[in-house]
Amino acid sequence: MQSGTPQHTHVLGFAVKAVQGMQNAIVPMAAAYFSMSDQPWAIFAALGIGALIGLLSAGMSYLGWRRLTYTVGAEDIRVESGILSRAARSVPYERIQDVSIEQGLIPRMFGLVQVKFETGAGGKDDLALSFLSEGEGERLREVIKARKDDADAGVISAGAGQDIQDAMAERAAPEPAEVLFSMDEKRLVTFGLFEFSLAVFAVLAGLFQYAETFASVELWDPEFWESWLAGPGSWLSTLGPAAQILGLISGLVTLAIVGSATGLVRTVLRDWGFVLERTPKGFRRRRGLLTKTDVVMPERRVQAITMTTGFIRRRFGWHGLKFVSLAQDSGSASHDVAPFAKPVEIAPIARAAGFAIHPADGTHWHRGSRKFRFDSAVIELLFLCLIAAVVATALAISGKGSPFYALIIAALGLVLASRQMFLWRFDYNALDPNFLFIKRGWLAPKLEVASRVKLQSVEIARGPIAKWRGYATLRLGLAGGTLQLEGLPIDRARELRTAIVTSIGATDFSELGR
């Protein structure tokens, strides 16, 4: 496979896309079957529609495969595609922030992978090649990364004009890898039990919607359930209050079981075989059961770290660590690198990325402004009291309902206002010689750590109330993300701005990370 020569993706890629396109036939097939359910040939009509859509999908996928080529050039990778109208896109190597490999369930059956080139400018500007063989995908990733390193260094790629196989031969020696974090089956199951999810109910709601559309069943009509209960479910109405309360508790327990099971399944599918390694090219993370992903992120592209936890998992000492990077991970600029770990396991990973999870000795933590919290509490209370007044007025005019609902809204305002004042006790920031630390939250505390040399801008923002009350918001520019400290006392905001501006002024960003 000659570098600089247009190449096709794997020939079986069109078959994968054709199979994936068959999901578009599910709704038309169901619609055809239910609309003709009174006919004996309804099932054959539905299958015929599915076969027709499948043939069209296969034909379009094959034509798309024939018309798609990619070229690995000396300075960029170029992809040309389009059946009726042609489109060509070139991405210079220096713009590529990350090259990842993803393998879904269907492509895995064919031994194929998707190679994604992330530019850090948003999903619409990223590039993907679907599908290549596993070996070819890995070779292409290595060549692109090597040429990107050459482009970053300002030299012409040593692989230009060579076969990709020859370029790989220059780097044939296996790279040593240090395992920083991994999750075995026991850890994964424990993690899944903490990942409570009600996604299954969203799926059921979708099925209900289809049932209403195609089966003419009004599942949200109270009369439908009343008529059903009048039959086989009539015995429920004969139960006493104690039994009904027991039924309610059983329903809540069932909800908890379903939510926990759903979270467990999602976690196992997403994080099966989770391994984070440190290689000479950066951090390499692999995970996934049905859809496997393989991401390599250079250390210099880690812009900040985020350490999170949850209300329950915090009581057991479990936390999660994410890297904020220039590249994106599943629609987010944050990469999960240790989603379920103890602080003693997280600290070495943070150090490997050049960060710390604790300020240097002698660094003082500072709280936000109490006035900011008080003003936020008053604003929330007034807003909900206004809503309560509107609701009470509407109920009085209509003569329907009880003013008790308005009192509930006003009580909610008092709760939220009290929450704002309480959160002031858990709003901290600290600045040591190397890092800015932001810690906030009570039930689910969150710690953000940014390197002073990687912050690119700092801004103090103040509205009319903030000016009058003497506090401000500090906005920090960070490649790959943003940081914001709300409600800082104005003196503290100015102190942080001066210190950070000094760090920015002493940093040559053109040389950062070389």
TrEMBL record:
Residues 65-143, 276-320, 431-499 form the YdbS-like PH domain. The chain crosses the membrane at residues 41-63, 188-211, 245-269, 377-398, 404-424. Keywords: Membrane, Transmembrane, Transmembrane helix. The keyword Signal does not apply. The keyword Transmembrane helix applies. Coiled coil: none annotated. It comes from the Bacteria. It holds the Pfam family bPH_2. This is PH domain-containing protein. It comes from Pontixanthobacter luteolus.
